[in-house]
């Protein structure tokens, strides 16, 4: 018997990295997984390899696309038990370098996408009297992250949205839970892209970067599985870090001494 057997999960950002690893594990543990991503070619190909998964093209920045997605899933599966908001993009830029385009692009996917997902799954889960929303944040929302300014701000917004939804649900007896996951560096194409940019632009910082702890996508998928399952039925409004102590011991700023 799988840990999420019979549940229906919608996962965004499912064509890569943490969303893909989570989709695989949820399907392996018995869920029907709707893998949603803007990268339709890769998403289709990957979903075809996962038993229990199907792909649905979704640009999370488009509110109507979310409404259509939940209508389709509700029609075909009759329910939505799990929503993992995992789609995200990053721009390597401090506040001094961040353009309006950087700011809006990062927030469109991260902040707006998560808002639309939560807003439109809420009536479905409320009607069911149950559901688990899992929002992918970052340790950047806890410590700040000077080099990815817009990203850290977007993740902080998602962290606050998560707690507000959890409290709303508890206050009104909706029965759904909403939690956020805060990974530090995890080995995915997103991290590889950032590291490659740092290597090209700032070799000195790159040398330090190679000493930093990096987790695996499955470390995050395991936390997703826990939050998606009934094992976490008492966990609501939590911000769970996966960082091997990074937020405990490591400052975000390398001080000049
Ligand atoms: N990798 C890390 O170190 C790390 C650390 C903390 C948090 N995160 C967060 O985890 C999540 C997943 O990151 P990842 O490392 O797997 O990244 P990734 O780049 O490997 O995957 C992100 C996925 O999101 C999709 N996506 C981008 N824009 C989209 C849109 N408009 N609509 C739908 N899908 C869209 C991409 O096509 C891609 O498949 C992100 O929210 C990221 O911020 C990652």
Describe this structure in words.
There is one protein chain. This protein has 257 residues and is α/β, with parallel strands linked by helices. 50% of the residues lie in helices and 15% in strands. Helix 1 packs across helix 9. The protein starts with 7 loop residues before the first strand and ends in an 8-residue tail after the last helix. The model has no long low-confidence stretch (mean pLDDT 96). It binds nicotinamide-adenine-dinucleotide. Keywords: Oxidoreductase.
Helices and strands in order:
Layout lengths: L7 E5 L4 H12 L3 E6 L2 H9 L4 E5 L5 H15 L4 E4 L14 H29 L2 E6 L3 H4 L5 H24 L3 E8 L5 H13 L1 H7 L7 H12 L10 E4 L3 H4 L8
Parallel strand pairs: 1-2, 1-4, 2-3, 4-5, 5-6, 6-7
Helix pairs in contact: 1-9, 3-4, 4-6, 7-8
The chain binds nicotinamide-adenine-dinucleotide (NAD).
């Amino acid at each position: 018997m799988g840990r999420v057997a019979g549940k229906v999960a919608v996962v965004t950002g499912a064509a890569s990295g943490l969303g893909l690893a989570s989709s695989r594990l949820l399907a392996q543990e018995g869920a029907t997984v709707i893998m949603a991503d803007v990268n339709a070619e890769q998403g289709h190909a990957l979903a075809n390899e996962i038993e229990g998964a199907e792909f649905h093209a979704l640009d999370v920045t488009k509110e109507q696309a979310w409404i259509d997605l939940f209508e389709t899933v509700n029609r075909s599966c009759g329910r939505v038990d799990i929503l993992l908001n995992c789609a995200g993009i990053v721009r390597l830029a401090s506040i001094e370098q961040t353009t309006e385009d950087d700011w809006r692009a990062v927030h469109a996917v991260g902040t707006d996408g998560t808002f639309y997902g939560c807003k439109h799954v809420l009536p479905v889960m409320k009607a069911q009297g149950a559901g688990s929303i899992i929002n992918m944040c970052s340790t950047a929302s806890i410590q700040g992250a000077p080099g990815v300014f817009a990203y850290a701000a977007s993740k902080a917004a998602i962290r606050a949205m998560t707690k507000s939804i959890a409290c709303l649900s508890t206050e009104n007896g909706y029965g759904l839970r909403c939690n956020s996951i805060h990974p530090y560096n995890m080995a995915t194409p997103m991290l590889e892209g950032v590291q490659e940019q740092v290597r090209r632009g700032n070799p000195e910082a790159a040398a330090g970067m190679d000493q930093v702890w990096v987790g695996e996508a499955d470390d995050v998928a395991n936390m997703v599985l826990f939050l998606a399952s009934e094992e976490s039925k008492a966990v609501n409004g939590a911000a769970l870090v996966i960082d091997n102590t990074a937020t405990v011991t490591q400052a975000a700023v390398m001080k000049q001494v």
